[in-house]
């Protein structure tokens, strides 16, 4: 088991460019390190940031790097990306 990487988007939630950059770099880093799971923490809030993260992950350039994405059933403020 290669482990789990976590990225918290709370520090960059106001900058769209920083959000996209954080997601892309986390996915590429997790794929390169052959991690089993990437946890992205957009927070609960109104759901706007979570929708943005899911849209970013749906892009073909990122989608080919992972197996599936799911919202954490125990915590709605966390997205799990399985590799």
TrEMBL record:
This is Smr domain-containing protein. It comes from Nocardia aurantia. Residues 8-83 form the Smr domain. InterPro entries: Smr_dom, Smr_dom_sf. Pfam families: Smr.
């Amino acid at each position: 088991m290669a482990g789990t990487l976590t990225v918290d988007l709370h520090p960059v939630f106001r900058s769209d460019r920083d959000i996209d950059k954080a997601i892309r770099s986390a996915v590429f880093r997790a794929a390169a390190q052959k991690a089993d799971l990437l946890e992205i923490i957009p927070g609960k809030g109104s759901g706007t940031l979570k929708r943005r993260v899911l849209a970013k992950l749906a892009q073909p350039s990122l989608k080919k790097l992972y197996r599936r994405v799911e919202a954490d059933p125990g915590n709605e403020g966390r997205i799990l990306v399985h590799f």
